[in-house]
Design goal:
By secondary structure, the chain is mainly alpha-helical. It is built from nine helices and no strands. Helix 1 packs parallel to helix 4 and helix 3 runs antiparallel to helix 4. About 3% of the residues have low confidence.
Length: 219
């Protein structure tokens, strides 16, 4: 097994593991028969991101990107369907889903109709996916500022932070190995945000070890 294949398997394992953390919310919804206190938009935006990268992986003929994002899109679709089943705000969820579908269709038409096949289409698609991925990694920064002010890290999931760190690192190394900056660059912020979270866990660790200071992950 060469280095590229090893990194490919690392990307698949760590990323699928990170996507699977949504099973925690799925379990909560099934047990409570409610979607209260669970955010819907992360499922929707992640699904759109998965579909964008799936298109990129298909054009690039990269089986690692394709496999990861097929699994990711299927999981996010499951979470979306179950959320719709349990939520009381079905109209809002339906409107948000339809808006996302419209964005997806417009994007697909743009890349398949107005751009010629080849490097131009691949580069613009890679750039678009990169921007979305970077924004998703950087979006929790406002929450981290609030945590610094409050000194309370119980809203953070330590297992999810670990999964994000290894996932981002794997993709950065994989992109570096392939000399693909569209893979490498957007995953770099995931490493830095994870390191910030690790620092917060260390800085605000409680003196008493009777209970964890962070939000545990139960599946």
């Amino acid at each position: 097994m060469d280095l590229t294949e090893l990194l490919s398997w690392a990307c698949i394992v760590f990323t699928v593991g990170m996507f699977s953390t949504g099973l925690t919310d799925l379990k909560k919804m099934r047990e409570s028969k409610s979607a209260d206190n669970i955010q819907f938009l992360p499922f929707l935006t992640t699904c759109l991101n998965n579909l964008g990268w799936l298109f990129y992986g298909t054009l690039k003929r990269d089986h690692t990107i394709v496999v990861v994002n097929v699994i990711g899109a299927l999981l996010q679709t499951l979470y979306i369907v179950m959320y719709f089943f349990y939520t009381k705000q079905k109209r809002l969820v339906m409107l948000q889903t339809l808006a996302a579908a419209a964005v997806l269709i417009c994007g697909w038409l743009y890349f398949t109709t107005f751009l010629t096949e080849g490097e131009a289409r691949l580069n613009q698609l890679g750039l678009s996916c990169s921007v979305v991925t970077i924004s998703m990694y950087l979006s929790p920064l406002t929450d981290l500022v609030a945590i610094v002010r409050s000194g309370n890290v119980q809203v953070l999931s330590f297992p999810l932070t670990v999964a994000t760190f290894f996932t981002s690192t794997s993709w950065v190394l994989y992109g570096l190995q392939l000399n693909d900056y569209y893979i490498m660059v957007p995953n770099t912020p995931g490493i830095f945000t994870s390191l910030i979270r690790f620092y917060l866990f260390w800085k605000f660790a409680p003196t008493s070890q009777s209970s964890p200071s962070y939000k545990p992950l139960h599946i």
